[in-house]
């Protein structure tokens, strides 16, 4: 296809080592030049997209979550290696981030401080060229986007060590913001204590989810230790800091620093896929990407069987419900609102039809957003 | 050069918006396919480099700091835009990181916890494909590399808010490890307090360097506030947490979380280039990259003028000394060791000659390492 490819990798086999390395490095340099040229051409085309959009006079969203998700999926699907799919996806995330910044720098607020998992999630979703601003509370992330101080916000919504982040869900009850995306992030668990001697540990404190996620490791390494469930892993670390050498906490490695504890063991979670989920909040109506989720906020009248009949349209249409979470509505003593995640985009005919039926049953009904499933 | 380029960006100007966007996106998709193909070809060549090196039977270093620095500089020098040089550099950092991981995953220990600035420095230097391990102390980062638990380590060495990190320098006195690279990271300062009202603040606590770095901002915004110097910015934040509404601290945004303070103002540093410096430590002898630094550890006899005559060979050869730092040697009451950074590589004739003369004057002389100057 390209001229330089005629110098095949196999031709180096009969050369001296120095000459072979020099030859391969020349090839790599030529590849790099081509990649660099293509990157800049891509940025030119991205700027052209911006110009066409601006010329149309409509309100312009340079960042299109559904389009980025489609590109990333395509890249990963057609990948032949030797680079792993995820690595190529990560490189393209950075390429898109840089090209987007060349159109217009994107302002994103996140739950700080700098170094927080939410910052890592924001970087994973938007790439390194985004302009990030740490904000001190979840409510302030919402406010930053509502007041157009930032175009998007990133907040945690499910935390594998602390459970649901109810602040985030509650904010949607009063905020007009929509969900424009999701990010999942792998979280590691650490065993922390005042000693580095694993065999001294008689009691382990942690949130029940963390205990569950490390059950196998605990069973292998500390078969006789007592496991005590607490409200959060941070609470566990705080307690252990006030106790003796024979107790330990499961927590993030940050907690070791904050509470002055030693890391006894790292990455003790049984499943490699232990993840925390974050939401990208914004004001955009995100189009279908082919693999989407829709988040609903609904409420029923307080009578027996109301929830069942509310959910019936979904079941009847075979629409998969990935989670349901109830929260007090704060309006009446016994009224609840439900946060429901379903598979599919609200613009798809099957989902739209089921949602219309569901809306008839509900006393409150809002689509919080349809957005692409996390790709990376 | 390539066929698709005949469809120039200017041809879209007379199309309808939808058709124009579709056309441009097709071009972008074709560019993406070419980039992806080139990325995988690059990874194949990188694997071939590994095979040639392994076949030679010598001890193999797949990661070559000087070569990566040369590639990054070349990429940034030949860049024509519209992507900024630094953005293209960042993308190539990730490409090299992914290709290297396809040869052999690189293990790097850093001063944790996860989310620390040192982690950010390690990612900036090695790219996102590296396998990072947080370690609790600077001494343990050295130990991790000395015991070959990790191939490299990353430790802070100059911190713009806390001054020199003397632990790091002191470790070189007893450790056989070398300096294999440097990383600089931009650090932001935040004004933290119990109020969000700037006009209430009467006193500001911080490390003297932080006060100096924010002097102009403080003069503009808090002309009547008293500025109090403390040992560290963390200490300032801790104190402010125990005091009233009319005091504030300058610190990193992490401190707001740890001490429960509000962010009153963000990025208050006067200079955009406020940076912290980190060292990459390892066992490698890094070759010349064209723009290098050399770190020396020297000691003199304790007599008048000894330091002056020690440094004379450098001055005579016109070799630029970028810093000198003295530390007690811990061997005698009045003995000091000096950490000296000079421009140039120890293998370059001019530097080698000056170092030979310097060695004659010194009672202790060690080259801690020659390494490429930070590129990104």
List the defining traits of the structure above:
homodimer; 376 residues; alpha/beta; Alpha-Beta Plaits; D-Maltodextrin-Binding Protein, domain 2; 3 domains; six-stranded mixed β-sheet; five-stranded mixed β-sheet; 15 strands; 40% helix; globular; prephenate dehydratase activity (chains A, B)
Judging by the overall fold, what is the CATH architecture of the largest domain in chain A? 2-Layer Sandwich
What is the chains' assembly state? homodimer
Low-confidence stretches of chain A: 1-10
Radius of gyration of chain A: 25 Å
How much beta of chain A, percentage-wise?
A: 15-25%
The count of strands of chain A amounts to 15
Largest interface, counted by CB within 8 Å of the partner chain's CB: A-B, 82 and 81 residues
Number of helices of chain A: 12
Kindly report the CATH topology of the largest domain in chain A: Alpha-Beta Plaits
Average pLDDT confidence of chain A is 86
């Amino acid at each position: 296809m390209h001229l330089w490819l005629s110098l095949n990798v196999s031709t180096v086999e009969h050369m001296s080592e120095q000459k072979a390395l020099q030859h391969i490095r020349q090839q790599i340099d030529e590849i790099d030049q081509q990649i660099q040229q293509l990157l800049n051409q891509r940025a030119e085309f991205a700027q052209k997209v911006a110009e066409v959009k601006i010329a149309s006079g409509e309100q312009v969203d340079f960042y299109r979550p559904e389009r980025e998700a489609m590109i990333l999926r395509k890249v990963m699907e057609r990948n032949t290696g030797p680079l792993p799919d995820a690595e190529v996806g990560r490189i393209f995330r950075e390429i898109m981030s840089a090209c987007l910044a060349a159109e217009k720098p994107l302002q994103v607020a996140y739950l700080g401080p700098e170094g927080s998992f939410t910052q890592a999630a924001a970087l994973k979703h938007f790439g390194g060229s985004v302009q990030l601003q740490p904000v001190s509370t979840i409510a302030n992330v919402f406010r930053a986007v509502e007041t157009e101080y930032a175009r998007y916000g990133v907040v945690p919504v499910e935390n594998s060590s602390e459970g649901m982040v109810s602040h985030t869900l509650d904010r949607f009850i009063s905020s007009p913001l929509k969900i424009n995306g999701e990010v999942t992030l792998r979280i590691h668990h650490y065993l922390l204590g005042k000693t580095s001697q694993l065999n001294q540990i008689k009691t382990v404190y942690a949130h029940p989810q963390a205990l569950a996620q490390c059950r196998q490791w605990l069973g292998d390494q500390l078969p006789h230790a007592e496991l005590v469930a607490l409200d959060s892993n941070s609470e566990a670390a705080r307690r252990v800091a006030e106790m003796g050498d024979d107790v330990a906490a499961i927590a993030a490695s940050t907690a070791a620093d904050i509470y002055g504890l030693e890391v006894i063991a790292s990455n003790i979670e049984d499943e490699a896929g232990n993840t925390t989920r974050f939401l990208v909040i914004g004001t955009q109506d995100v189009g279908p990407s082919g693999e989407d989720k829709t988040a609903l906020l609904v409420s029923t009248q307080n009578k027996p069987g109301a929830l069942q009949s509310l959910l019936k349209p979904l079941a009847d249409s075979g629409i998969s419900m990935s989670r349901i979470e109830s929260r007090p509505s704060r309006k009446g003593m016994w009224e609840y609102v439900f946060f429901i995640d379903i598979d599919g985009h609200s613009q798809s005919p099957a989902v739209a039809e089921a949602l219309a039926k569901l809306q008839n049953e509900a006393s409150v009904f809002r689509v919080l957003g349809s957005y692409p499933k996390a790709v990376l």
